[in-house]
Amino acid sequence: MRQNFSAYSFRLKKNKNYINILFVSILFFLLLLPIKNFSQSKNSKPFVVVLDAGHGGHDSGNRGNGYFEKKIALNIVLKIGKKLEKTPDIKVIYTRKKDVFVDLIQRANIANKADADLFISVHCDAFTSPKAFGAGTFVLGLHANERNFKIAQKENAVIFLEDDYEQNYDGFNPNDPESVISLILMQETYLDQSIEAASSIQKSFVSNLKRKDRTVKQAGFVVLKYTYMPSVLVETGFLTNSSEGSYLNSSKGQSNMSDAIAKAIINYKSQRESSMQNQISYSDSTKLNIKLKKQVSLLFKIQISASKKIS
Ligand SMILES: [Zn+2]
């Protein structure tokens, strides 16, 4: 009888050892499974940038010192595009690559259809005083002052050259400051990212090119209103200023400006990716912890119930 009891107790111990080995193996397998899935989940969609050269065709833009804003904007945009096209994971789309007129709403539609990650509209500024100079970047918002309203008014005036502007822009009047308030609601969603992109461009102008810093500002630009993505309008400098005008009209000036803007876009892309990665890592590690806790508690329940049956 005693011998039988010893044999039974030996078998019990042996079974418990098997269960423990099985428990550790399953736990190890479950630990590996979610980590493998996490490392496989990578975003393969390219970063889509829409480059918008302001004006074109019968709309020359401003003619400060006899220069053509539409030509300078297009040259800068094409140069930015060439640089970005060489960058991995970036897809470039242009609203125009030639000297043609494109409605403002059509420019936004091109970006929306492409489901773009960033919209950059390139322009040159003009002012009544030839002394004004420097590069500035704008995001959509209320005009903080009369000067910003004037800049937006000038860029928005192009809609008067369009055939159906009253229908297309819901009765928007570029000359009425009140009319602009209705513009800003949609872009509010992307305001933080638009400011992040604009700041990156502005920093690049100042640190790479030593341009006068006219800072990031908010104003009511129609072209930025209809885009469903972070959007920035760049005023590369004043054609009405003699030295800045000739710099922007020169091949060297256009190369420098496009270099600075392209670098800023690449920099913004990296910032967004690292911020997205942090968000993904955080939510994934939280999900992973919850999943593991559930799995471990389930395994303990199985082990306890198995041990009870044996003993
Ligand atoms: Zn313009």
Defining traits:
6 strands, alpha/beta, 311 residues, binds zinc ion, elongated, Aminopeptidase, 6-stranded mixed sheet
Number of helices: 9
Q: Which superfamily, in CATH terms, is the homologous superfamily?
A: Zn-dependent exopeptidases
Total domain modules: 1
- The helix content is 55-70%
The H/E string reads HEHEHEEHHHEHEHH
Structural class: alpha/beta
Which ions, cofactors or small ligands are bound in this entry?
A: zinc ion
Mean pLDDT across every amino acid position: 81
Described by strand count, sense and barrel closure, the largest sheet is: 6 strands, mixed
Beta-strand fraction estimate: 5-15%
Cα-to-Cα separation, first versus last residue: 18 Å
**Strand order in space, largest sheet:** 2-1-3-6-4-5
Oligomeric state of this protein: single chain
Indicate the radius of gyration in whole angstroms: 30 Å
Q: What would CATH call the architecture?
A: 3-Layer(aba) Sandwich
Overview of this protein structure:
The protein is α/β, with parallel strands linked by helices and 311 residues long. It has one domain (47-271): Zn-dependent exopeptidases (Aminopeptidase, 3-Layer(aba) Sandwich), CATH 3.40.630.40. It is 55% helix and 13% strand. The chain is built from 9 helices and 6 strands. It has helices at 2-40, 69-85, 104-113, 146-156, 165-168, 191-209, 222-225, 242-249, 251-310; strands at residues 47-53, 90-94, 118-125, 135-140, 213-219, 231-238. It has a 6-stranded mixed β-sheet with strand order 2-1-3-6-4-5, sandwiched between helices. The longest helix is centred in the C-terminal third of the chain and has 60 residues, at 251-310. The radius of gyration is 30 Å and the shape is elongated. It starts with a helix and ends with a helix. Residues 34-42 have low confidence and may be disordered. Zinc ion is lined by residues 54-55, 61, 69, 123, 155.
